[in-house]
Specification:
Length: about 350
């Protein structure tokens, strides 16, 4: 089969993040301009593939979307294999997906998403579909790639927020706690905390001690450092009835008698226009995904390794997480500058 007759579908699944549209554009424009492929956009992630909700994408449809946040295709958290291979709820979703894939006449399905999406993509690949995965997540926790697009934008937003909190904290001599995203991986907390000059950075991968935090803050006050900035990943250990930021703020206030305020960035980190770095990375990923399709190298995820774009088998990344190593060079450097990670200060 020549690439001239190839048809590809694109879907975006899971949470939105800056750079998705740049990736869609990278796939579609490379497919249309360089390989004369036909491209179809599938709405609302795997839900659209189940319901047969799709439309043909021309070059004009993806022009002007490079700088847009979100996804023009829409997204959902539909997990067709939820509950295992034998899971059934009204319909056999994996089989419906296979049937619609065949009905559309697709030669390949491009799945843009994070860990859950890539796990589903790997299962569809095992089920016999031609699939290519593109990693996107602001958490930067997809295993097998040095960087996922969306991360740089999220770090930039979080860093700006920390910068702004410095002025308020200094004016009122308060302890300011800022909660950033990161359920299991603390990459956003680590990077934004370093970039924003956080005095304390708490991430899920490093166990913290509240007494150590209190002593550290008190020692800063004794040195006439009247305020502190605490950057907290949302996934740190805590009382589950409270958000990470709220919990740490309350505990610090009780243990130190210092006025403490908490701020939760939440979805602000996922919205808005992507940074230049994310636009470039997403474009590179999208274009390379199409080249893999042209070479019929299916069942792979696009990845960044040592600044070069490459690919790894979907089976190598599915079900794995890229977590922050407590011995990470950035953590060591931060410690040498006096930053506290809650274990030793």
């Amino acid at each position: 089969m020549t690439t001239k007759s190839m048809k590809i579908g694109i879907l975006t699944a899971g949470g939105d993040c800056p750079g998705i549209n740049a990736a869609i554009r990278g796939v579609a424009k490379t497919a249309i301009v360089s390989h004369n492929m036909k491209v179809y956009g599938i709405s609302s992630g795997f839900l659209g593939l189940i319901e047969g909700d799709y439309a043909k994408l021309d070059e004009a449809d993806v022009s002007g979307i490079l700088t847009l946040g979100g996804t023009i295709l829409g997204t959902s958290r539909e997990k067709p294999f939820k509950g295992g291979e034998s899971y059934r709820r009204a319909i056999d979703k994996p089989q419906v997906i296979k049937d619609n894939y065949k009905k559309m006449g697709l030669d390949c399905l491009v799945c843009i998403g994070g860990n859950g999406t890539l796990k589903t993509a790997e299962k569809l690949s095992k089920a016999g579909l031609n699939v290519i995965g593109i990693p996107k997540t602001i958490d930067n926790d997809v295993w097998g790639t040095d960087l996922s697009f969306g991360f740089d934008s999220a770090v930039s937003i979080a860093t700006e927020a920390i910068d702004r909190l410095h002025t308020t904290a200094n004016s009122h001599k308060r302890i300011m706690v800022i909660e950033v995203m990161g359920h299991q991986a603390g990459w956003i907390g680590l990077y934004s905390g370093l970039a924003g000059g956080g005095d304390i950075i708490l991430i899920p991968e490093i166990k913290y001690d509240l007494k150590i935090l209190a002593e550290y803050i008190s020692s800063r006050a004794a040195k006439n450092k009247g305020y502190s900035i605490i950057v907290v990943s949302e996934g740190i250990a805590r009382e589950k009835s409270k958000s990470a930021g709220q919990y740490i703020a309350e505990q610090i206030s009780q243990l130190t008698d210092h006025e403490t305020r908490g701020t939760v960035l939440g979805y602000l980190q996922r919205g808005g226009t992507p940074t230049a770095m994310d636009r470039i990375l997403a474009t590179r990923y999208g274009a390379y995904a199409t080249e893999l399709i042209a070479k019929r190298k299916f069942g792979h995820m696009v990845a960044l390794k040592n600044e070069a774009i490459t690919s790894i088998p979907l089976s190598a990344t599915a079900g794995k997480l890229k977590l922050v190593d407590p011995g990470n060079a950035l953590i060591k450097k931060a410690r040498s500058l006096g930053t506290c990670f809650g274990d030793v200060c």
